[in-house]
From TrEMBL:
Keywords: Aminotransferase, Pyridoxal phosphate, Transferase. One of its GO terms (molecular function) is pyridoxal phosphate binding. GO terms for biological process: polysaccharide biosynthetic process. It comes from Macrococcus lamae. It comes from the Bacteria. InterPro entries: DegT/StrS_aminotransferase, PyrdxlP-dep_Trfase, PyrdxlP-dep_Trfase_major, PyrdxlP-dep_Trfase_small. The active site is at K190. This is Aminotransferase class I/II-fold pyridoxal phosphate-dependent enzyme. The modification N6-(pyridoxal phosphate)lysine is found at K190. Belongs to the DegT/DnrJ/EryC1 family. Its cofactor is pyridoxal 5'-phosphate. Coiled coil: none annotated. The keyword Electron transport does not apply. It holds the Pfam family DegT_DnrJ_EryC1.
Length: 383
């Protein structure tokens, strides 16, 4: 059996252990400490943001963003449908009502057409959402100009869920710099990791101060333990932040490698009829966190699930595209605004993500391509 080829896996650089060692040497093993401060500073500067709060997860970042926007029971919050469920769970934590917005074909992200319809209807019904969560799928930034202009015209704040898109660009601007808040995840499967963690970013330093307060049990400035608000235990530890500092030093290398892997797939699979790789919107640069593609089963005579099962026989991990949230049993009956036909559903039913870990060698990628081609049993025209 060959070695396992993962969709995405941790890939350490040279200095992570050094920063973790510093935390041990200074006995800053508890939450907070110099690594946390430095990590926040580095990520905020990289992301063209004024302030950042290092947290225990991306999910907690989204949750605090909703808290800071005063989302309350019964409020509506719009969210991309084609995403990991963590994008929407915090809406439910606050007993607010999610409304799901479809994808469009150019980016696989939130459709401006569907968002426009949803906002118009909400305004007419007198129930504009408290926030719109825009997700950047697999590293591709959504059509921010169009989406943010729409939200601005109704005065609705945007949260950029950039959990998958650290290192991506949109018209020269960094992902994570859009909206009132943005959120990164440093979970083990993301482009860089702190072994679990996240960050909330904004340009309003007061809001980030408040986020730090809420993430450390909302303790008032008093000697005794006094609390006037309910808080959370959401802060990142100084040990994890040390890993993050080391990881930020190799972020550009990781983006470069993930893009190379995508390009290799594109090159090797270009003559296979029925395969279309995820597009990249003009003027944007995706970090290509995951290489995703759709397959037209009428041409390939193989469904995505059959391909995934076949690849698993060779110890290759591949997965369907995220199951859209409006199709999840837990969100049954939730309002959904389609693009024209249901694009998210199409991408889910026909999409597949290939191993994209930055530790993969060229030979690993070629091996996956050979197995894909063998399963689809097509002649490679150029060879
Ligand atoms: C990973 C992810 C999250 C959640 O991040 P965690 O750090 O795992 O809590 C949120 N949104 C998207 C789109 C993600 O991919």
């Amino acid at each position: 059996m060959n070695k396992r080829l993962h969709l995405s896996i941790a890939h350490m650089g040279n200095n992570e252990q050094k920063y973790v060692q510093e935390a041990f040497d200074q006995n800053w093993v508890a939450p907070l400490g110099p690594n946390v401060d430095k990590f926040e500073e580095v990520v905020a500067e990289y992301s063209e943001r004024k302030a950042a709060a290092a947290l225990s997860s991306g999910t907690s970042g989204l949750h605090l963003a909703l808290k800071l926007l005063d989302v309350q029971q019964g409020d509506a919050v719009f969210c991309s449908s084609l995403t990991f469920i963590a994008s929407a769970n915090p809406i439910v934590y606050e007993k607010a009502t999610p409304v799901f917005i479809d994808s469009e074909r150019d980016t696989w992200n939130m459709s401006p057409l569907a968002l426009e319809r949803a906002l118009k209807e909400a305004a007419e019904a007198g129930q504009l959402p408290k926030a719109v969560i825009i997700v950047n799928l697999y590293g591709q930034v959504a059509k921010m100009d169009e989406l943010i202009a729409l939200c601005d015209s109704y005065d609705v704040p945007v949260i950029e869920d950039s959990a998958e898109s650290l290192g991506s660009l949109y018209k020269g601007r960094k992902s994570g710099s859009f909206g009132k808040f943005s959120v990164f995840s440093f979970n083990g499967n993301k482009i860089i990791t702190t072994s679990g963690g996240g960050m909330l970013l904004a340009d309003d330093e007061e809001l980030i101060k408040k986020a730090r307060f809420l993430s450390t049990q909302a303790r008032d400035a008093a000697l005794h333990y006094q609390h006037s608000e309910i808080g959370y235990n959401y802060r990142m530890s100084n040990v994890c932040a040390g890993i993050g500092r080391g990881q930020m030093e190799v972020l550009e290398d990781r983006v470069k490698r993930r893009r190379e892997i995508f390009d290799m797939y594109a090159r090797e699979l270009k003559d296979v009829k029925g395969i279309s790789l995820m597009p990249e919107l003009e003027g944007t640069k995706s970090n290509r966190w995951l290489t995703a593609m759709t397959i037209d089963s009428e041409l390939t005579h193989v469904t995505p699930v059959e391909l995934i099962e076949k690849l698993a026989e060779d110890n290759i991990e591949s997965r369907p595209v995220w199951k859209p949230l409006h199709l999840q049993p837990v969100f049954e009956g939730t309002k959904f605004y389609p693009h024209d036909e249901d694009v998210a559903k199409y991408l889910f039913e026909n999409g597949i993500c290939l191993p994209s870990a930055s530790i993969m060698t060229d030979e690993d990628v070629i091996f996956v391509c050979e197995r894909v081609k063998a399963v689809l049993s097509v002649e490679h025209v150029n060879q």
